[in-house]
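I'd like us to work through together how a protein chain folds, taking it slowly. To get us started, please write out a protein record for me. Go ahead whenever you are ready, and we will take it from there:
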Amino acid sequence: MARSYLFIPGNVPRMLQNMDVYDADVIIIDLEDAIAIEEKDEARFLTCEFLRAHRPENLPILIRINSDEDSLMRADLMAIKGLDITGIVLPKTSLAQLERFTSMKPTNTTDLEIYGLIETPEAFFELDKIAKHPRIKGLMLGGEDLSTHTNIDKSLDEIAFHMPKSLLNFAAKAAQKEAIDTPVSSLDDAALIQGIKQTKTFGFDGKLAIHPNQVPLINTHLAPSKTAIHEARRIIIAHEKKGSMRFSLDGKMIDKPIIQRAQKLLDKAHRYGLLAGDAHAL
């Protein structure tokens, strides 16, 4: 599970070279939307040569492949054959797209994680089946393409995206998969903070980023705060001392769901290095 997923274009050497200093939890090397059709071959070559020679250690790396043409998808999959990557971001994910991908993937990609980028209206009518697909690791919301396909102008009112956000998160959680929110297109900090608030409100695990400057705010705001960690510790300590799943703390009734949320928060804080030692060591 990660907070920040940073897209970087596969044909910009400077960004490939600096991928490990951006502090993103996950890097997504983009061979699709960020790359003009005449630059696809160059992007594949630069990406593959860099990763073979300078692959950063302990950094999850995904590659967003092309999806609109079989020839482009097949060329991407052949190019990344044998690369040390974590997984693939599959654009315009649908059941048909998953079948298409599976039919042409090289045998060496069998174990790669697949993140389904949900960005067409059709996908929302089969989200549960997509999320439960054995190859899918998580679902990502592709807000810009979804806006294009549906004529939704979320810049006028963010409420327009409340339903797709909820549906995607529910489908991912029902299948015990990760849910990653759409990126904020603005580079304004206030707009990004508002977007991250939406990410948290709708229960997403992480957020896509389109610029390195967005990563610090995403990491900070999607990590448990010191106050939240402190309160979670107090709940777990009280639970262990009382030996009960139902008790009062500071005039508030605590029961099983609240205890479980407190433990999940401490587990998350531990993953992000915000706790010393074991998350259970209070």
The first helix runs from residue 13 to 17. The longest strand covers residues 4-9. The domain at 4-221 is CATH 3.20.20.60 (TIM Barrel). The chain has two domains: 4-221, 226-271.
